[in-house]
């Protein structure tokens, strides 16, 4: 890798983490922006990011445009509601800042998440938090393997990161949505019908193709192609969450541009030209929706120096957690 290239946040690609904590923050009213920016930059202090955890931070579009306007991609925007009330729809629950802590055990992740919240206490309030976990061999709670179509490790940065030479290079657009599953209804279907809903076989995750793939299958709806018919990838890092009373999927995906998410959501929520909705939404519904921008480590270091928060780019590199499980 060239020294001139922007270094991405390593936690985006860290494999093998089995415990996860996602936290969304809103800035306190009338907080001084310099103070807020310095506090956000200090999240990479050892008290938060050391000890075998991976840390990813994302800024809401308005906040990022304020603190680093020269590094804001042109398509940066907050999440807007999609679909229709009374039908399949996703609400907009946009917040100012997003934090993802992952590691090899829930206790360590909890300790570092709590340290981060304490560090931001004077400038931001916790708006939502969600602990998550890896289920079996990276399966969604529906029993299907999640992230099968993810780009291979060497291809993931191409799918996830803004290319060099553009504003925000080395950063990534992030889509965050919490989905609540109706597992009782889904599990009442015969396995063959479940596979028709998803578009893959359940035990081995073999994808249906051609006429065998229903047009409303989940796989069919989330695939987007370029003008040449080649699939345009996103990089998924979703994980299950929940209690016996409410459970589902915390959907997290990274992309080099936001339009990929817009097209994917349009195909799921009947705003696409063919007017077909994703059949999986008959069994799962989104209850949150936010866009964030995860800037490069290089940009975060420059931002910290600008506001007087001393950051060492070497010490900012997260220590990858032990590879104890396949990543989602």
Give the overall form. globular
Instruction: State the end-to-end distance.
Output: 26 Å
Structural class: alpha+beta
State the helicity in percent bands.
10-25%
Question: How many individual β-strands?
Answer: 12
Instruction: State which percent range the strand residues make up.
Output: 15-25%
Mean pLDDT: 90
Q: What series of H and E elements makes up the topology? A: EHHEHEEEHEHEHHHEEEHEEH
The largest pleated sheet is described as: 6 strands, antiparallel
Instruction: Indicate the low-confidence ranges by residue numbers.
Output: 309-328
Number of helices: 10
Structure explained in plain terms:
- The protein is an alpha+beta fold and about 325 residues long.
- The chain is built from 10 helices and 12 strands.
- The chain has helices spanning about 35-40, 45-50, 60-65, 105-120, 155-160, 185, 190-200, 220, 260-270, 295-305, and strands at about 20-25, 55-60, 80-85, 90, 95-105, 125-135, 170-180, 235, 240, 245-255, 285, 290-295.
- The strands form 3 sheets. Strands 7, 8, 9, 10, 11 and 12 form a 6-stranded antiparallel β-sheet that branches.
- Strand 9 (about 240) and strand 10 form a beta hairpin.
- It is globular and about 55 Å long.
- Residues about 310-328 have low confidence and may be disordered.
């Amino acid at each position: 890798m060239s020294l001139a290239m922007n270094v991405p946040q390593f936690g985006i690609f860290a494999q093998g983490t089995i415990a996860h904590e996602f936290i969304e923050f809103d800035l306190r009213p009338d907080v001084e922006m310099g103070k807020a920016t310095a506090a956000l930059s200090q999240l990479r202090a050892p008290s938060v990011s050391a000890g075998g955890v991976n840390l990813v931070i994302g800024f809401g579009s308005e906040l990022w445009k304020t603190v680093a306007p020269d590094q804001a991609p042109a398509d940066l925007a907050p999440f807007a509601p999609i679909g229709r009330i009374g039908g399949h729809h996703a609400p907009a629950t946009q917040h100012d800042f997003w934090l993802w802590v992952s590691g090899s055990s829930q206790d360590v992740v909890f300790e570092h998440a709590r340290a981060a919240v304490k560090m931001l206490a004077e400038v931001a309030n916790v708006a939502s938090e969600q602990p998550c976990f890896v289920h079996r061999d990276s399966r969604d709670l529906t029993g299907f393997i999640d992230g099968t179509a993810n780009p291979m490790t060497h291809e993931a940065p191409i799918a996830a990161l803004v290319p060099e030479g553009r504003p925000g290079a080395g950063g990534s657009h992030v889509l965050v949505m919490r989905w609540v599953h109706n597992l009782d209804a889904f599990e009442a279907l015969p396995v063959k019908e479940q596979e028709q809903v998803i578009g893959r076989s359940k035990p081995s995750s073999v994808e249906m193709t051609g006429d065998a793939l229903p047009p409303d299958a989940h796989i069919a709806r989330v695939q987007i192609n370029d003008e040449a018919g080649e699939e345009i990838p996103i990089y998924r890092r979703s994980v299950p969450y929940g209690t016996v009373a409410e459970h589902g999927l915390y959907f997290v995906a990274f992309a080099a541009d936001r339009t990929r998410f817009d097209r994917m959501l349009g195909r799921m929520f009947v705003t696409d030209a063919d007017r077909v909705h994703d059949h999986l939404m008959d069994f799962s519904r989104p209850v949150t929706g936010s866009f964030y921008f995860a800037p490069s480590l290089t940009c975060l270091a420059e931002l910290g120096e600008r506001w007087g928060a001393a950051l060492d780019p070497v010490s900012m590199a997260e220590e990858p957690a032990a590879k104890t499980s396949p990543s989602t």
